[in-house]
Amino acid sequence: MDELSAETIRAALRSECLGRQVLYQDRMDSTNSTAASLARKGAADGFLVIADEQTAGRGRLGRPWVAPRGGALLFSLVLRPHDSPLHKCPRGLDPRRAQALTMVCSLGVRQAILETTGLAAQLKWPNDILLDGRKAGGILCELGLDGPRLAYAVVGIGLNVDMDARALPAEYRATSLSNELGRHVPRLRLLCAALLYIEQRYRSLLAGAPVVEEWAAALQTIGQRVELSTAEGMLEGIAEGVDADGALLLRLDSGQVRPVLVGDIAAPGPA
Ligand code: BTN
User: Fold this and answer.
1) What's the 218 CA to ligand 1 centre distance in angstroms?
2) Residues 6 or more apart from 60 whose CB is under 8 A from it?
3) Over the chain, what is the mean pLDDT?
4) 255 CA distance to ligand 1 centroid (A)?
């Protein structure tokens, strides 16, 4: 297990804003909960909260997020698009466009994985990071609203790095970077690369550049027949693409195309 600490992170950082302020603890309930509480007290854009272990890690849709101590990257970023030193963007980000922050983070993590290990990760709509078809990571984006305006977002990233994911429950269909490579993978280099590549895309997003094309191209979901569990029940069809907000465009068997912004792919199948 490699040593993460506020000092080692600061010394290895390659990013200009993300991670310049950091709270590291060996154990925390959830880095997302801690980051949200710091954001409510005014933590600035780019504040990094990171832990070696979470006692109440959370995934999407109320699921727990489990990882052994020291084997995963477990971190959250406070983002304030209307008040970022990276680019003046006084109008900020419309909360309805917040999936763009998940896009920025998943693409940054994917590039960092490629740079540090040579592994080509795929993304699965809406927030999964896959290696060889198994889940290696996920992103949980939670918003703090001030009326209709986005006051802050907390983007939490969990990535199975240096651990045996086969010890996790089989239904997670999980893997890790070290499982895929068959060797020890240090976390610090990967973390600093991820912060750099997330920052580059976050800066472009603030400057008005769309990230959706790059994200759509990295989604292995597109073109597949999927079963989607949504608030309206199960939907089945072909995932044809995504719209500008990140909604999955699902072609139902009736021929109708339905945009789905919140859902979970239950079972991928052949197109
Ligand atoms: C998912 O795939 O459902 C999203 C998982 C997100 C997990 C990360 S781990 C760091 C951060 N803190 C949390 O409690 N959750 C996110």
Assistant:
1) 20
2) 127, 138, 140, 264
3) 95
4) 35
State the CB neighbour count (10 A cutoff) for residue 208. Answer: 8
**Residue 45, domain member (yes or no):** yes
In this structure, the answer to whether residues 231 and 138 fall within a common structural domain is no
Q: Which residues of the chain have pLDDT under 70?
A: 1-2, 267-271
What CATH number is attached to the domain comprising 86?
3.30.930.10
What's residue 129's pLDDT? 98
Cα of 158 from ligand 1 centre, angstroms: 5
Q: How far is the CA of 174 from the centre of ligand 1 (A)?
A: 14
**Cα 252–Cα 256–Cα 259 angle in degrees, nearest 5:** 80
Mutate to test the pocket of ligand 1, among 109, 140, 176 (most ligand atoms within 8 A of CB): 140
Summarised one tens digit per residue, pLDDT across range 19-58 is 999 999 999 999 999 999 999 999 999 999 999 999 999 9
Domain that residue 238 falls in: 225-265
200 lines ligand 1 (CB under 6 A): no
Instruction: Based on the fold, state whether residues 124 and 231 are members of the same structural domain.
Output: no
**Residue 76 CB–ligand 1 contact under 6 Å:** yes
Contact by Cβ (8 Å): 150, 94: yes
